[in-house]
Amino acid sequence: xxxxxxxxxxxxxxxxxxxxxxxxxxxxxxxxxxxxxxxxxxxxxxxxxxxxxxxxxxxxxxxxxxxxxxxxxxxxxxxxxxxxxxxxxxxxxxxxxxxxxxxxxxxxxxxxxxxxxxxxxxxxxxxxxxxxxxxxxxxxxxxxxxxxxxxxxxxxxxxxxxxxxxxxxxxxxx
Length: 174
Known about the structure:
By secondary structure, the protein is α+β, with helices and mostly antiparallel strands.
């Protein structure tokens, strides 16, 4: 079963360094996810039309230039409006999970999307709290124990926080 290694970066510079190192170590840009606050407030948002949209996430179309550095190189980058949290930028598999229909469930928002990726609810709530504080959530999709070790080593070398490894659920892909 596939696993993902998650961590929290406390700055955009740290997040960019982590993404650069993951790419340089052989991870593809489609295996890396980033979720970060949209501090620019310039994101253009569309709205998901469903009965639970107010509980879920409204997604924006992919737009260029909304995140700089290595983060800007990732696939599927776009803007999200998360009720109760505000504007975010997401890239990679986390973008699909947060814009999917499962996010409209009772748990909703980031927690529901992260649970959909296989993260236990208690950890998903901790990550949501860290995002509320302005931090960045990163993950690397892995297939082998060597990739897990490589991702963890990169996260630790860059002083990332709240590092965890989770079995992936049947998460949506881009």
